[in-house]
Amino acid sequence: MQERLTQLSCDDFASKLAAKESVPGGGGAAALAGALGAALGSMVGNFTIGKKKYADVQDDIERMCASAEGIRIRLLDLVQKDAEAFEPLSRAYGIPKEDPMRAQVLEEATLAACQAPLEMMRAICEAIDLLEEMGRKGSRMLLSDVGCGAYLCAAALQAASLNIFVNTATLANRETAQRLDCEVDSMLASYVPLANDVAAQVEAAIRRD
């Protein structure tokens, strides 16, 4: 893969996503959506910094901005890593079934393909925590952006999970598969409701105002 997917324009990335090509796919789209959610958290923070009304929470806002920026960068990097993990998996599926090494190579490639979406989910959970705090402490003028970020992160988290489940379903090592599924289920159970609650609180606040 010669070009980094995140260096494409929005139009080119979307076109590549729509094309009859294996990458980018759902994993890359999930990571990008999560990065956008984290970026919205940063935006809210950057507009809050320096405002007298929020002077008492400025240190918190600066900390959140730094964390959100780190998450955004990690998630953009995972767009590429997810795509790069697909190639060895695709090659493994192409190994003739009579090859005695096929099962081992396929198992290793399948497990490796779980890693990028798993890292996405962990990073997105961090982003949701930050958005929840930003919703409480950031500028009320940008509250809707917190809600947008939360909805994007909820969708990204669920999308990334499917890219793990589709691989754990085929792992021969069921103990490893169950361990990964358990971690994914735990993140979904905790953070999808939290993200939706953040967005619901934003909606209630802006519609009341």
UniProtKB/TrEMBL annotation:
- Single GO term (MF): hydrolase activity
According to the entry, every stretch annotated as the Cyclodeaminase/cyclohydrolase domain falls at: 9-185
Known Pfam families for this protein? FTCD_C (PF04961)
Q: Which InterPro entries match?
A: Cyclodeamin/CycHdrlase, Formintransfe-cycloase-like_sf
Keyword Ion transport assigned to the entry: answer is: no
Keyword annotations from UniProtKB, A to Z:
Hydrolase
Keyword Hydrolase (UniProt): yes
Name assigned to this protein: Methenyl tetrahydrofolate cyclohydrolase
Species source reads: Slackia heliotrinireducens (strain ATCC 29202 / DSM 20476 / NCTC 11029 / RHS 1) (Peptococcus heliotrinreducens)
Organismal lineage? Bacteria, Bacillati, Actinomycetota, Coriobacteriia, Eggerthellales
